[in-house]
Amino acid sequence: MKYKLGDFVRFVDEKMEGYVTRIINDQMIGVTGEDDFEIPVLATKVTSVHGHSKLVGDEEEAEVEAIIPGEFKSKGVYIAVVADAKANSVVHLHLLNETSYQLLASVSTEQNKQYKGEFAGIIEPRSYAKVYSAKLADLQLWPKLIFQVLFHTKQNQPVLSPLNISEQFKAKDFSGAKKQVPFINQLGWMIQLDEPELVIDAQKLKESFFKPAEEKQVVAKPQQEVDLHIEKLRDDYQFLASSEILNIQLTNFKHALDAAIVHQMPDITFIHGTGNGILKHELHKLLSKNAKVQTFMDARKEKFGYGATKVVLK
Q: How do residues 168-188 score in pLDDT, each as one tens digit?
């Protein structure tokens, strides 16, 4: 295949251009334009746009940082998953080396007992390399990724056992909040491959059984306006079913409403959007049964339209 995910291409027969967001087979690719619609097209019907700015993750290896004497770090091998800077539906997986070891790495994929080498190379200390790219929405179709890593240094340090890890990524791997990824300087998810061994302290475990009951949990005061849009509540919303989304929104609504009552707030506004009206209907049904609610109404229409509900508390 001539093209790879994230390449910027132009259609030969039409005045259209966009980013490659799917490799369908050896002849077909999916191209996503400014309207965010993906169009399947023969690879022979598009051409690369030369001179177009490189996308984040196109570098095979990053610049090597100097190792500071006396600060040898032996842990910190991660898979860093970051979105493409131009085609947001595409994510790049980087093997990120925070250690002071030089890594000799191999990454392969396995699907239906078919194997394919994706990357092989040296990753210098405190550096990274892009090893795989895919469309995040196709997560359930991703192959199993097999990471094999050898550690090397000329310094007087212990010889570490190689890593041989297979990962079948799932939605839960991307359910946490994104963090700033070192060296890449983008927000993304980080999954550690060389997790430290869990050491159980028997004495501390024994003491934990005799600790007094925890003090009553302090309920934080909610914001005056609570946004219930799912993208504000979860980073992995694109993997969730409609029923799961509604349950998450209702749970956040109940927690915020209870907190507002505890803090004796005079009112609170919930932003639910217009959409198909299901969330708004469920909120109003719950509010009508709550004895602590004096009344509720559409919030300021000039600000929210009909997409928010103001709740006045007793």
A: 998 888 877 888 999 999 999
